[in-house]
Amino acid sequence: MSSTPLMPIPGHIDPVTTPRDITPRSDGRIDLVGLPRAHIAELLSEAGLDAKAAKLRAKQLFHWLYHRGVTDFEGMTDIAKTMRPWLAERFVIARPEVVLAQHSSDGTRKWLLRTADGHEFEMVFIPDEARGTLCVSSQVGCTLNCRFCHTGTMRLVRNLTVGEIVGQVMLARDALGEWPNGVSEFAPLPDEDDEDGDAPGSYTANGRLLTNIVMMGMGEPLYNFDNVRDALRLVMDGDGLALSRRRITLSTSGVVPMMARAGAEMGVNLAVSLHGVTKEVRDEIVPINRKYGIEELLQACADYPGASNARRITFEYVMLAGKNDSDEDARELARLIKQYRLPAKVNLIPFNPWPGAAYECSSPERIRAFSEIIFAAGISAPVRTPRGRDIDAACGQLKTAAAKMSRAELDRLADEKQAALG
Ligand code: SAH
Ligand code: SF4
What string of pLDDT tens digits covers the 422 residues of the chain? Predict the structure, then answer.
C-alpha cells in the first residue's frame, strides 16, 4: 500500500493521482507481478499455507517471476507438481497487453501497451553500439503541463502500478529473449523434458541487449513515488531482474520535495528536466517551476546523494527556437551549474514537434553554438541524435528521451574510460 501521501500543489499543476495497489481481475485471480516476497508470502498464507511454507514458496515464486521470467506455474520445476495447479487457480503472472509493437530500421523498438483496465501507455527500447536503453513510463498521461511536451496535453492520468512498471521491463526481456536461459520470441522453444533447466542466476551481462533503464516515458515518476521505487527495487534485486542502480536513471521535471528521498530510497542516477534558466521562461515551459523554483531545484541537485563526477546529474534541455536558446541562456546555464558546484552534464535535445505545439526547434547552428558555450565552460553538452524516425515521426517524446540518455550514457562511459586511462 502507498506510504507516501499525495502532495498538494495548487492549480493545474496539482497531481491528482490515484494510489493503486493490485488491479482486480475479472476472474478473481491475483496477478503476482509487482509484488515483493513478503506480500506474496502473505497471499500464500491467506490461501492456506502455514507461515514457513508460505515464506519458502514466496522465495521460489519471486525467483521464477523476476529472475527467470517464467509466466506459467507449470514451468516452476522446484515447486511440487501437485502444487502448480493450486497456484494457477489462485494466481496469474501477467504482462501489460501489447496493442502495437513497432520495429525501426535503426533497431529502435516501440510498444504501445494497455493496462488491464484499458489505459494505453508507451515503452521504447533504443539499442546503440554500447548499450540498450529501455525507456519506461510511470503514469498514464501526466499532471504537469510542460508546454513542449505532448504527454502534458493528455488529460487522463492514473499512476501505473508497481506491476505495470516492472511489467514493462519484463515484457522487454520477453521480447528480446533475455531471461537467463530464456528464448527470444523468434527462437525455438527449449527442450521441454529439461525439468531442471540451467543453474539459476546464470544470467550475465555479456552480450546483453537490455542494459539500461530510464524513467523517461510518460508521466512524472516522482509523483508516483512509491510505485516507481517499489518497481525499481524489483529491478535492482539480485534475485530479481538484477540490474545495477548505476544503469538506471530517473528523470524528474523538478519535484523538489521528493528528490532527497529518491536518492535515499532508490539511489539511481538523476536526470533533471531544466529546459530554462530564468524564472520567466521556466515558469512558462515547465510550470512546476512556479511551485519549486530554479534555485531550490539546483540546491536539491547539489544535495542529491551519490552525485559525483563519476555519476553526474544530467540536465535535460530541450532546444526551443527563440525561447531558451540564446548565447546568454547558455552562459547562464553554465554559470548556474558552477555556482551550485554540480557534477553535471547537459543533454541538448532538439525539440520534437507535434501537431498543435506552440514552439519550433532551434536551428542546428543555434544548437551547436549553444553547446559550444557550455562546452567551453568545461561542461559536457552533447546534442542527441533522433532515433526510430521511421516508426514514429510525430510523437516521439519517449524515444527522444531515451535516445538522448543513451547518448549521455555513452558520454559518461567515454569519460570513465578516459579517467581509467589517465
Ligand atoms: N516527467 C519526467 C520524465 C518524462 S519526460 C520529466 O519531465 O523529466 C522526459 C523528457 O522528455 C523531458 O525531459 C523532455 O526533455 C523530453 N521531452 C518531452 N517532450 C519533448 C519534445 N516534444 N521534444 C523533445 N523532448 C521532449
Ligand atoms: Fe510531464 Fe515530463 Fe511531459 Fe513535463 S516533460 S508534461 S513532467 S512527462
Answer: 455 655 544 334 434 444 556 667 788 899 999 999 999 999 999 999 999 999 999 999 999 999 999 999 999 999 999 999 999 999 999 999 999 998 888 888 999 999 988 888 999 999 888 889 999 999 998 888 899 998 878 777 789 999 999 999 999 999 999 987 644 333 333 333 333 333 333 334 456 789 999 999 999 999 999 999 999 999 999 999 999 999 999 999 999 999 999 999 999 999 999 999 999 999 999 999 999 999 999 999 999 988 787 789 999 999 999 999 999 999 999 999 999 999 999 999 999 888 889 999 999 999 999 999 999 999 999 998 777 766 653 334 543 444 444 444 445 444 544 444 43
Domain shared by 338 and 274, yes or no:
yes
Domain containing 41 equals 34-92
Question: Are 101 and 77 contained in the same domain?
Answer: no
Shortest CA distance to 272 belongs to which of 264, 263, 280, 230?
263
Neighbouring CB atoms inside 10 A of 207's CB total 6
Question: Which residue is listed with cell 549553444?
Answer: 370
Ligand 1 pocket, residues with Cβ under 6 angstroms: 148-150, 216, 220, 251-253, 273, 316, 318, 349, 351-352, 397, 400-401
Annotation marks residue 192 as catalytic: no
54 plus 180 within the same structural domain:
no
Contact 126, 389 (CB under 8 A): no
| Active site (annotated) includes residue 149 | no
Positive or negative, the CA dihedral 120, 239, 210, 178 is negative
Candidates 12, 124, 137, 146: which one to mutate for ligand 2, based on the most atoms within 8 Å of Cβ?
Answer: 146
* Choice among 122, 178, 284, 409 that is catalytic: 122
122 and 237 inside one domain: yes
DSSP E strands in 129-234: the ranges are 132-135, 139-140, 158-159, 212-215
Q: Are 412 and 309 within one domain?
A: yes
- What is the residue with the minimal CA distance to atom 8 of ligand 1? 252
CA of 149 to the centre of ligand 2 (A): 6
Same domain assignment for residues 74 and 115 = no
Per the residue annotation, which of 178, 365, 395, 409 is the catalytic one?
Answer: 395
**CB 316 less than 6 A from any atom of ligand 2:** no
* Residue of minimum CA distance from atom 6 in ligand 2: 152
CATH classification of the domain holding 78? 1.10.150.530
Ligand having the closest approach to the CA of 386 = 1
> What is the Cα 57 distance to its own chain's centre?
30
Q: Which amino acid would we find at residue 176? A: L
- Same-domain pairing of 342 and 393: yes
Distance 312 CA to ligand 2 centre (A): 22
In this structure, is residue 359 part of a structural domain? yes
| Residue 67 and residue 180 share a domain | no
